[in-house]
Specification:
- 36% of the residues lie in helices and 21% in strands.
- The protein has 473 residues and is of the alpha/beta class.
- It has four domains: 156 residues, P-loop containing nucleotide triphosphate hydrolases (Rossmann fold), CATH 3.40.50; 173 residues, P-loop containing nucleotide triphosphate hydrolases (Rossmann fold); 79 residues, K homology (KH) domain (GMP Synthetase, Chain A, domain 3, 2-Layer Sandwich), CATH 3.30.300.20; 36 residues.
- It has a six-stranded mixed sheet with strand order 2-3-1-4-5-6, with helices on both faces. Strands 8-9-7-10-11-12 form a six-stranded mixed sheet, with helices on both faces.
- β4, α3 and β5 form a beta-alpha-beta unit.
- α11 crosses α12.
- About 10% of the residues have low confidence.
Length: 473
């Protein structure tokens, strides 16, 4: 499965900064004040086509206050969930008693733990590594997370020997659909309703979902695998040992799916957990369907209020289709299959270079790229760079200067022209080599004084004239 990396250490050593750099987001709160990250935060990260899950933790300070005790519990849970633990220390602050206490705790655990010395910019990194050698960790890395120094080398070293993660196609046939959401939102009820009476199931489901369960079955001649997951609980409510791994299993299920259905309780509204799941699913590039459950029995006023809230808070997932259902009574559930097939078809559609280039030309004719530094950006052609999610690569000149507003315009134009529904799309730009670059260089050389044949000929003529003039005298 996907590797899980946990960031641990005392407060204010740069864990959240490193988390944001690796996940390319600002999901974790960062400020120069200790103790801001109280709960675990999960992120989806990728390095050179290798994907992994990252956990940011609060901190271990050794204090006995209630907040510190809670942070310590969350950190210990993150360590148990992780395959690899990065123990961060402050290179500028030097070795502290708290670092030594954390090191003693970590050495007692049966985990792959590596020491990361952060904030080594402006100091002697070798000396810092020597200062922390007394902690007794064999693997030591020096980085400056705020400036991204040493971070790529760190992740490259960590993931070099990790095997490529692949879904088991033999066991999980057809379109893999992950059903995720908070506990008690109706996930298992929806699974049962979708399977129906004429199901062909390879295994029985237990009554209580503690882990991700893969259920292959057929529907109208098509193969599917439903992934029923344990609920993503607020971290402070995770108490039982059997529930500690529910979040990681859910995130791994999202990564392994082709289509993710995020189930939201209509009566509770959209929570921060729902938004985090949506963000993670989009970052993973998975096709997405949003199902608002427990829609039956609500008043028209409450339904209008929920729809307004959805429109306001889900503006960043306009590509996703939203359905209002009742998993218990079955209303609205039947159309989910068509939505799944449509989203999967969009996510895995083969796109020809001619078609994409034609769409690009139409878009640039309707709204030309901006002029930068006196030169207009030219976009020449486009081709498909991948699928699930669809990746479109646009080639041209000065593409690194394309503003985000124009990039969004192109993306929306492609989505509409290709009729992509239920899937995110990624747009990449590449600047081609300038065919006139060598010619420009040669021209500049010719213009240098004393270098061109023209200048040389004038110089020779002047010398000849001087000699003739002296002879004449």
């Amino acid at each position: 499965m996907l590797p899980v990396i946990a960031l641990v250490g005392r407060p204010n050593v740069g864990k959240s900064t490193l988390f944001n750099v690796l996940t390319k987001s600002r999901d974790a709160l960062v400020a120069d004040y200790p103790g801001l990250t109280r709960d675990r935060k999960y992120g989806h990260a990728m390095f050179q086509d290798k994907t992994y899950i990252l956990i940011d933790t609060g901190g271990l300070s050794g204090e006995s206050e209630a907040l510190d005790e809670q942070m310590a519990k969350q950190t210990l849970l993150a360590i148990e969930e992780a395959n690899l633990v990065l123990f961060l220390v402050d290179g500028r602050g030097g070795l502290t008693a708290a670092d030594e206490g954390i090191a003693r705790q970590l050495r007692k655990m049966d985990k792959d733990i590596q020491l990361v010395i952060n904030k080594t910019d402006g100091i002697d990194a070798e000396q810092a590594m020597a200062d922390f050698s007394t902690l007794g960790f064999a693997e030591v890395h020096a980085i400056a997370a705020a400036h991204k120094r040493g971070v790529p080398q760190l992740i490259d070293n960590l993931l070099t020997d990790w095997p490529e993660w692949q879904a088991d196609e033999k066991d999980h046939k057809g379109i893999k659909v992950a059903i995720v959401g908070k506990p008690n939102v109706g996930k298992s009820t929806l699974v049962n309703r979708m399977l129906g009476e004429d199901r062909v199931v390879a295994m029985d489901m237990p009554g209580t979902t503690r882990d991700s369960i893969y259920i292959p079955f057929e529907h109208n001649g098509c193969d599917y695998t439903l992934i029923d997951t344990a609920g993503v609980r607020r971290q402070r409510k995770v108490k039982e040992t059997v529930e500690k791994f529910s979040v990681i299993k859910t995130l791994q299920a999202v990564d392994q799916s082709n289509v993710t259905i995020i189930l939201i309780d209509a009566r509770e509204g959209i929570s921060d957990q729902d938004l985090h799941l949506l963000g993670y699913t989009i970052d993973s590039g998975r096709a997405l369907i949003i199902a608002i459950n427990k829609w039956d029995g609500m008043s028209d006023y409450d339904k209008d209020r929920v729809k307004e809230d959805l429109q306001r808070r889900l503006s960043f997932v306009q590509f996703a289709e939203i359905y209002f259902i009742s998993a218990l009574h079955g209303s609205g559930v039947g159309v989910l299959y068509k939505a799944i097939n449509r989203a999967y078809s969009s996510a895995t559609k083969n796109l020809s270079t001619n078609e994409l280039t034609r769409i690009l030309e139409t878009a640039t004719q309707a709204h030309q790229p901006p002029t930068v530094r006196g030169r207009r950006i030219k976009l020449r052609y486009a081709h498909q760079g991948g699928m699930n999610p669809p990746i479109i690569v646009v080639h041209g000149n000065q593409t690194d200067l394309i503003p985000k507003s124009y990039s969004r315009y192109l993306m929306n134009h492609f989505i509409e022209a290709l009729d992509l529904r239920g899937t995110p799309m990624r747009l990449e730009f590449k600047t081609g080599a300038n065919p006139y670059a060598e010619r420009a260089v040669s021209k500049s050389r010719k213009k240098q004084p004393g270098k061109t044949p023209y200048k040389k000929s004038i110089k020779k003529k002047n010398i000849t004239r001087k000699r003739e003039h002296s002879r004449h005298k």
